[in-house]
Write a structure and sequence with these properties.
By secondary structure, the protein is mainly β. The protein has a domain of about 120 residues: Type IV secretion system, VirB10/TraB/TrbI (Lipocalin, Beta Barrel), CATH 2.40.128.260. About 10% of the residues lie in helices and about 35% in strands. It has one helix and 13 strands, in the order αβββββββββββββ. The strands form four sheets. Strands 2, 4, 7, 8, 9, 10 and 12 form a seven-stranded antiparallel beta sheet that branches. It is elongated. About 25% of the residues are buried.
Length: about 190
């Protein structure tokens, strides 16, 4: 009986040291962020919501250059048949965007506002124009400073002549879109 108690005691000690008593969803001691509803790690530890915390290694850059790629993950479904012009669609920044100094200028999970600029069908062709309008980084709203409405514009085309699956432009929730900045984006 004593033989069984010693290995059991050691096993319980090892099990307790592994940290199995931590609550799910809470940040670990190493500073890892909790899992977000969008399938990726949310903003750094201590955040009330994604994109609302100060940056750990914030870039000192004052702007991002034209041509910088910003990956946006949609949080809503977009379909050219169900939507009209100038409707808002939400998304989040899919990957951190670095400034010219190599530090994070726009963190992952920052909130992005997209606008449907044009959704039309002409004959068998369907076109959808989706614009990246602004990005919310903590308390700052990043938008075009040169008077233009949008930071970037993507155009999607479908031709119903190619088959039933091509009747409308359909972008699923969590679709990853790459927007290319059309002009420098002020960060301050």
């Amino acid at each position: 009986m004593l033989r069984l108690k010693i290995p059991l005691f050691l096993l319980l000690c090892l099990f307790g040291m592994a940290g199995c008593g931590s609550k799910s969803g809470s940040p670990s001691a190493s500073g890892d962020a909790p899992f977000s509803a969008f399938g990726k790690n949310s903003a750094p530890t201590g955040s009330a919501r994604a994109g609302s915390v100060p940056l750990r290694a914030a870039s000192a850059a004052t702007s991002l250059a034209a041509g910088t790629i910003i990956g946006i993950e949609l949080t809503d479904v977009v379909d050219s048949d169900m939507l009209g012009d100038n409707l808002f669609v939400m998304g989040t920044v899919g990957d951190p965007v670095t400034g010219p100094d190599g530090l994070v200028a726009i963190p992952e999970s920052s909130i992005a506002l997209l606008v449907i600029r044009d959704a039309e069908r002409v004959g068998t062709h369907t076109r959808l124009q989706l614009a990246l309008n602004r990005i919310q980084v903590g308390e700052r709203t990043l938008k075009n400073g040169n008077g233009a409405k949008d930071l970037s514009l993507l155009t999607f085309d479908e031709d119903a002549a190619q088959g039933m699956g091509h009747r409308t432009v359909h972008l699923q929730r969590r679709a990853y879109l790459k927007f290319k900045l059309e002009a420098p984006l002020p960060l301050r």
